[in-house]
Amino acid sequence: MNSGLRAAAVIGTAVLLSLSTPVQAVPIEVSTGGVFVDSQSSIAVGTQWSLDLVYETSTPDTLPGDPAEGLYNAYQWLQLTVGDQIYTLADLVPERANVRVFDDRPSNDGDGETFRDVVGFGGSVASTLYGFSLLASFGDAAPGGGVLGSDALIADPLQLTSLFTDRQSPFWQFTDFVFYEMQPGETTTSVFAIGSVDRFSAAYVSVPEPGTLVLLSLGLLMMRWRRTLRIE
Asked: What pairs with residue 3 in β-bridges?
């Protein structure tokens, strides 16, 4: 087979591979932050916090038998900043670094007010007593008792953003960020700081589409093929 025909065969193979390649789930990147507005810890009120992360939307639920709560070890990348302190995904306890999705699970704030947690991002810092939780909650008047309809991991960045920012919704309850310290022997977090969520955005991670890569490869191959034909 001469070089021209060989190039044509390569082009044909690339096209077939592109058509047979399954569409992959696209990760979602989240960027959020605010300031601490209440503190019972060493963190001063007014201290800034920020959380940036990427999670994989195809991650399986580690609680498949619980229809009211989904637990997903989905983080691909994470950076948490509390004042001057920076924590990354490598600093977290793997089994406690999770995205939680709740469907129709009521909670009580201790003052008699009922609400429903909807989605939360959390983790615990290894070799320390520190942990964090970013949570969005809706009131118990939400239609059907839940705003999502299932505990599936959210794969739509617009939907995720609205849960943290759509405060005009009649069912919106609160969003907050909690950085806590679990004391030895405690089962509840008595030492913590609460932060406001002043910004929140979510978007699909930008990755080259398979078709774009194929077109680029085909273009390069065609240029090589034409050059080969001229030489021959």
From this structure: none
User: E-assigned strands of 89-156?
Assistant: 98-102, 106-108, 114-124, 130-139
User: Over the chain, what is the mean pLDDT?
Assistant: 79
CB 156 within 8 A of CB 138: no
Residue type, 27: P
What lies within 8 Å, CB to CB, of 71 at 6+ separation is 61, 62, 63, 98, 99, 100
CB 63 within 8 A of CB 69: yes
Q: Contact 32/51 with Cβ under 8 angstroms?
A: yes
CA distance readout (Å), 28 to 76, 78, 156, 165: 10, 12, 8, 17
Taking every pair of Cα atoms in the chain, the longest distance, rounded to a whole number of angstroms, is: 85
| 164-189 pLDDT tens trace | 998 766 666 788 999 998 766 655 65
CB 150 within 8 A of CB 103: yes
Q: Count Cβ atoms below 10 Å from residue 58 Cβ, excluding itself.
A: 12
Does the pLDDT at position 52 exceed 70? yes
Give the Cα separation of 72 and 115 in Å (integer).
Answer: 22
Joined together, the tokens standing for residue 4 give: 């021209």
CA angle (199, 169, 200) in 5-degree steps? 15
Residues 6+ apart with CB under 8 A from 205: 26, 27, 28, 29, 54
174/164 Cα distance (integer angstroms): 8
